[in-house]
Amino acid sequence: MNDEVFMSRALALASQGLWSTSPNPRVGCVFVKQGKVIAEGFHQRAGGPHAEVAAINQTKDSLTGATAYVTLEPCSHFGRTPPCCQTLAKLNLERVVVAMTDPNPLVSGRGLSVLKQAGFQVDVGILEEEALQLNRGYIKRMKQQGPWLFGKVAISIDGGMALASGESKWITGDKARQDVMTLRAQSCAILTGVKTVIQDNPLLNVRLDHLDKIPKPMVRQPDLIILDTRLSLPLDARLLTTLDSRNIVVIVGEGLADKKRQQQLSSMGVEVITLPVSTEGVDLNVLQQWLKTTEYNEVMVESGPTLMSQFLQHHLLDELVVYQAPMLMGKGSQMLYQVQTTKLTEAARFTLIDSQVIGDDIRSRYQRKAEPELQP
Questions:
Q1: Active-site choice (4, 40, 52, 254)
Q2: Is 52 assigned a catalytic role?
Q3: Residue 50 annotated as binding site
Q4: What does UniProt list as catalytic (predicted)?
């Protein structure tokens, strides 16, 4: 029971890095001696001290005979910092408790082996599911599957995302929109379509004045990825004013970009990447392969109904976050899912992960159900 209590504290510490550790995982560490916490710490930023070192640096007490609780297997390789398993191995600890092994191929059990060889009792798997959820994007990327891709939508009771005219400001209330800022702050990048840029002229960044519970120095602006098949991004788009605080990548179709506009955007600091196209625009399956080459752990898709529907149709989203407002938009509104389904057996089905009232709206998180396996 005490193991879960102390690991829960380590996970709470790790969650303080939700906004800042990328591309590294979120990790917390607690040292316990005679039933009391004597040191604790968490990893804040890539290149900074890892959780174990942060905790060690925080105390002047002797760690001899202590138990270390770590949310992720201590690293065993030289990166920006020395291996943490070697640091722990030099301490006269009694025990090391680890929530989960590190899926990074450079670690993947090696850190645990070093600790066992040092003579420590090593226990793995305490609150493992909570640890997995905390680093689901990092875990997916380490397994060569690319970032955790999730969509965020605001809809009416009847499923509308916009009126026929394209008007969508605002469907949800202030508190829901403030909550969206926390999702953006947790994301490594935001992905949208050029239609959204032209229609709404958004900033699509994190507004620090909307984050009441997050330490402002911990927040980094997510990169922005714009799908723009024919490179029609306006040169005076408001989001281009955020180039001083983040990277902006515009993805265009092969052979379809205006060279002059491309040069203009490049001179402003925008990265323009060319990918193959499908009948719908930039090929989303190829886009997914490109995302695997990045160091993004989580990417948030924040777009209009057409692009969001395409991501859903191609089964590319790991999660869908829906903010539903108590309004009816009526006939002719632009619906979330624009794919015609002729049979209920063919309908896309999801699992509700959690649901919460935020102001006058409801936020629900869904994950897509796995496709049933065909029987031989």
A1: 52
A2: yes
A3: yes
A4: 52
9 is in an annotated binding site: no
For residue 310, which of 329, 342, 285, 327 has the smallest C-alpha distance? 285
Any known ligand binding at 75? yes
Residue 168 assigned ligand-binding role: yes
20 and 80 share one domain: yes
Query: Is 226 a member of any domain?
Result: yes
Q: What is residue 160's three-state secondary structure?
A: strand
Residue 375 lies in a domain: no
Cβ-Cβ contacts under 8 Å for 326 (sequence gap 6 or more) = 157, 360, 361
Gap between the Cα atoms of 46 and 220, Å rounded: 12
Same domain, 321 and 356: yes
- Domain span including residue 281: 146-368
Digitized pLDDT (tens) for each residue of the chain, 376 residues in all? 599 999 999 999 999 999 999 999 999 999 999 999 999 999 999 889 999 999 999 888 899 999 999 999 999 877 777 889 999 999 989 999 999 999 998 898 899 999 999 999 999 999 999 999 999 999 999 998 899 999 999 999 999 999 988 888 899 999 999 999 999 999 999 999 999 999 999 999 998 887 777 777 778 899 999 999 999 999 999 999 999 999 999 999 999 988 999 999 999 999 999 999 999 999 999 999 999 999 999 999 999 999 999 999 898 999 999 999 999 999 878 888 887 788 888 888 899 999 999 999 999 999 987 654 444 4
- 355 — phi, psi (to 5°)? -145, 140
The annotation status of 290 as a binding-site residue, yes or no, is no
Total count of domains within the chain: 2
Helix, strand, coil share (%) of the chain residues, nearest 5:
30, 25, 45
Domain shared by 103 and 233, yes or no: no
User: How many whole angstroms separate alpha carbon 275 and alpha carbon 282?
Assistant: 7
Nearest to 113 by CA among 160, 74, 155, 69: 74
Long-range Cβ pairs for the range 274-278 (8 Å, 24+): 275/251, 277/229, 277/253
